[in-house]
């Protein structure tokens, strides 16, 4: 069986660890289609936070406490940059992590597409699943906010990169909308449409629906491949009770006026039969009463406390499929 997972962020990375453990038992093949909307160029280096979260987590090199970057990290370069007054000072790159960005940026500058660069980086980390960026093209999530630009005192709206919105302002600024810059012209990365065509099931990881999954679906052709494909599409709720398992989904959903509940996110994805993407929606047992129009909803424990609990989640999602 071929399992394709749409994913982004640390929640998606941990879910994938469960998918990989499940697939090791069954001999199934796993492909992860990963969000690139968080990608950013800082200090001349191309940083891919979601691809790296998955690669480091599955490769055993992630910092479990911080949730991003490398375990046992040191910060000499960050401190040196600060000594030069080099901006952005609000974004920290660890020394070990920088090696990844240097290799990636060098390969991209030499003309390799991001999908090929990711494959090359994974030769070291051996994540045990195939990692594909959603697109090889530039697609960046920007956020329209009320933060005045330097020297601009009219308090007008401006668009800032998602990383500035989240890391610098912690999402705590008047926010109007998210924009996926470059999405209209983006094409699915090499391998993505083939993966979806050969999928026996597609899982939507418990990732942020607004800034992790929506940018993947914004790539023209990708959503269509999903909704017209033969594989059932099962979503796993990133919300338990009325709070995200981790991260900033509550702030993002509020911008869209979508309730931060399993029903709210299930409704946002929508049923495939009525123009949405899902055939089934897996929610936590505390949300067992959730209903979403035209969608089959099942409940299972969704706290990814350890790998065994995550494997049980994956099994429940596949049973629903
Ligand atoms: N998150 C932070 O809160 N502060 C940082 O300085 C920061 C740096 C950083 C560098 C590389 C990387 O891959 C991720 C990094 N993150 C940092 C995490 C990142 O901002 C977000 O959590 C994700 O983009 C959301 O999935």
Cα separation of the termini? 13 Å
Radius of gyration: 19 Å
CATH class: Alpha Beta
What's the overall average pLDDT, rounded? 96
Order of helices and strands: EHEEEHHHHEEEHEHEHHEEEHHEEH
**Can you tell me the overall shape?**
globular
- Tell me what portion of residues adopts beta-strand conformation: 15-25%
Describe the structure.
With 321 residues, the protein is an alpha/beta fold. The chain has a single domain (2-137, 185-244, 260-320), classed as 3-Layer(aba) Sandwich (Rossmann fold). The protein has 12 helices and 14 strands. It has helices spanning 9-26, 49-59, 76-83, 95-109, 114-125, 162-168, 192-198, 209-217, 222-228, 249-255, 262-269, 307-320, and strands at residues 2-7, 29-34, 40-42, 45-47, 130-133, 140-145, 158-161, 175-181, 201-204, 233-236, 239-240, 243-244, 280-283, 296-299. The strands form 4 sheets. It has a 7-stranded parallel β-sheet, with helices on both faces. A 3-stranded antiparallel β-sheet has the order 7-6-8. A hairpin with a 2-residue loop joins strand 3 (40-42) and strand 4 (45-47). Helix 1 packs across helix 2, helix 2 packs parallel to helix 5 (114-125) and helix 4 runs antiparallel to helix 5. The longest helix has 18 residues, at 9-26. Ligand FO1 binds at residues 9, 38, 47, 49-50, 52, 68-69, 91-93, 97, 163, 166-167.
């Amino acid at each position: 069986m071929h399992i394709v997972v749409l994913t982004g962020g640390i929640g998606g990375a941990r879910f994938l660890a469960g998918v990989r453990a499940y697939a090791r038992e069954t001999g199934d093949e796993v492909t992860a289609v990963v969000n690139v909307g968080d990608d950013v160029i800082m200090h001349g280096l191309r940083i891919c936070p979601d691809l790296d979260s998955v690669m480091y987590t599955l490769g055993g090199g992630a910092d479990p406490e911080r949730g991003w970057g490398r375990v046992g990290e040191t910060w000499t370069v960050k401190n040196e940059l600060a000594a030069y007054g080099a901006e952005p000072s609000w974004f920290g790159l660890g020394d070990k992590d920088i090696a990844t960005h240097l290799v990636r940026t060098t390969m991209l500058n030499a003309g390799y597409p991001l999908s090929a660069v990711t494959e090359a980086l994974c030769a070291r980390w051996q994540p045990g699943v195939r990692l594909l960026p959603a697109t090889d093209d530039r697609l960046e999530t920007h956020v329209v906010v009320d933060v005045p630009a330097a020297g601009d005192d009219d308090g007008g709206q401006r668009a800032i990169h998602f990383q500035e919105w989240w890391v610098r302002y912690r999402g705590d600024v008047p926010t109007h909308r998210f924009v996926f810059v470059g999405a209209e012209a983006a094409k699915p990365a090499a391998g993505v449409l083939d993966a979806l065509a050969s999928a026996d099931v597609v899982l939507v990881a418990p990732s942020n629906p607004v800034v992790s999954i929506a940018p993947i679906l914004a790539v023209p052709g990708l959503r269509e491949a999903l909704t017209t494909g033969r594989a059932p599409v099962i979503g796993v709720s990133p919300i338990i009770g009325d709070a995200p398992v981790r991260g900033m989904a509550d702030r993002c959903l509020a911008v869209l006026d979508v309730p931060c509940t399993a029903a709210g996110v299930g409704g946002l994805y929508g049923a495939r039969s009525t123009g949405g993407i899902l055939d089934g929606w897996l929610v936590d047992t505390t949300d067992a009463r959730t209903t979403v129009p035209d969608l089959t909803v099942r409940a299972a424990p969704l706290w990814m406390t350890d790998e065994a609990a995550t494997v049980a989640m994956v099994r429940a999602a596949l049973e629903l499929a």
